Amino acid sequence: xxxxxxxxxxxxxxxxxxxxxxxxxxxxxxxxxxxxxxxxxxxxxxxxxxxxxxxxxxxxxxxxxxxxxxxxxxxxxxxxxxxxxxxxxxxxxxxxxxx
Length: 99
Fold this sequence. Notes:
Helix 1 runs antiparallel to helix 3, helix 1 runs parallel beside helix 4 and helix 3 packs antiparallel against helix 4. By secondary structure, the chain is mainly α. The N and C termini lie far apart (33 Å). Helix content is 69%, strand content 0%. It is globular. The chain has one domain.
């Protein structure tokens, strides 16, 4: 899978997990800081909650992936991809607690 597709799939996996739960106002539409801030604010999700922290962490790792996409086998890219995959599992587990 190309680096762009890999990043998109990682983001999609996390967004799908978050949006598997019906939120009061709106779904999470992106994994960047402003989108996460808006989502937490409008849905009254505490920005210091474990879920919010996981989303911010995923956002940071995806940013690293984007900056190392020229060399997909670079250690930083691989580590970030592994971290995002682990965060995706944690997000799914955390979402199950919110229902």
